[in-house]
Amino acid sequence: MTLLVLLVALLGLAVGSFLNVVVWRVPRGESVVSPPSACPRCGHRIRARDNVPVLGWLLLRGRCRDCGEPIAVRYPLVEAATGAAFGLVAWWAGVSWTLPALLYLAAITVALALIDLDTRRLPDAIVLPSYGVGLALLALAAWNPGGETHGDALVRALVGCVALFGVYFLLLVLYPAGMGFGDVKLAGVLGLYLGWAGWASLVVGWFAAFLLGGLFAVGLLLTRRAGRRTGVPFGPWMLAGAWLGLLGGDAVWDWYRTLL
What DSSP line would sit under 133-181, residue for residue? Predict the structure, then answer.
């Protein structure tokens, strides 16, 4: 298990480096594969040895090798955070066919959360393909080659997708100022995963998004960092709520039932 976690965490570091490109280019409608990364000031291409996640930034002391332009600390932080997220997911899921699906969700979580915070948008270029990718990976997990199949989980995933999409679409119709259609489209993707995990995860993941987002908004109001009309990106809280539902949905649901 330790070796698995280590290898997956190293994969996460590399994925995090790519996500830095995604977060910068996708909102601008640019290709994520070309041209190669370059310094925005002097235009010199980033050398391969400087592209080593986290270590490259440290060795360069956070500056371009050619012109000395500062390189934002956000880049190694995203790489490190993605590596840590991948490692935690591997530790939780273990060696299973569910692991690829969860790692994909972890990757788009980092990308979409940062893009939404930066631009208050959830790009279709990431969200819409995630329906197909997520469904394919969860179908693989349901097939579970070499083990017991889980067709019921795949059915729940499809029901969860439709249900969460429908709920968010209804909320959008009733209160258009409260969220955007990007949130609705993301809800369908998260519903796939939450439905796969179980009905308790679906309910907890849906409710947790509003609870976490609401607490954050209240905190901003109390500290006077925002007003009642200030828009707050909801995508990061949807993603955080979904992970809470996935990792602890059953435990939270059981705790809630003891209070009734």
Answer: HHHHHHHHHHH-TTS---HHHHHHHHHHHHHHHHHHHHHHHH-GGG--H
Residue 45 three-state SS: strand
Say how far residue 64 (Cα) sits from the centre of its chain.
29
Q: Mapping DSSP to helix (H, G, I), strand (E, B) and coil, where does residue 122 land? A: coil
Q: Give residues with Cβ within 8 angstroms of 12, minimum separation 6.
A: 82, 83, 84, 85, 86, 87, 103, 106
pLDDT tens column, 169-193: 999 999 887 788 999 999 999 999 9
Give Cα 244 to chain centroid, integer Å: 12
Sign of CA dihedral 8, 13, 17, 20: positive
Q: Could you give the CA distance from residue 204 to residue 251 in angstroms, rounded to a whole number?
A: 10
